[in-house]
Amino acid sequence: MKIRKRLQELKSVYFILFFTALTYISSFILNLLVEFFNIPDIYFATAPKESNHNTVLLFLEVIIFAPLFETLLHQVLVYKIFDKFSNLEIKKNEYLLIFFSALFFGLIHFYSVIYIFNTFFIGGILMYAYILKAKNKNKAFILLIIIHLLRNLYPFIHKVFFD
After folding, report:
1. DSSP assignment string, 36-49
2. Are the C-beta atoms of residues 129 and 1 closer than 8 Å to each other?
3. Residue ranges of the domains in the chain?
């Protein structure tokens, strides 16, 4: 059985765990490469200062609203636009769809150059997960929100308890 088909057939909880783990693994690998090659980062002065938020506001922003709105914008909307204006089937243009979704996702997370690259890969993983479950759009949307929420959970916990 092909990997794609196996991923599509995963029960929701395993699908969520697999793709959440994949987002963390991609970040881990990127961080290893950055450290190994001693790549300097460029930070942007316009990055929001999360330290000014209280915990409840930060929770609402990072755990509730970001996964909801970013999934709508970067997976659902990009998928629908691509589907509507593409002359070919989405399956034939998956790589292009994943690239554009990941690019938009990465660019909205403009805290630093390395963070943009990190979120580019995460955005690609999220879009691929959405494509796999796109036949049932409501289920795909909910699964992606949960994956995104779980992806944001560790940084939130780290920020609240260890910063």
Report:
1. HTTPPP-B-TTS--
2. no
3. 67-163
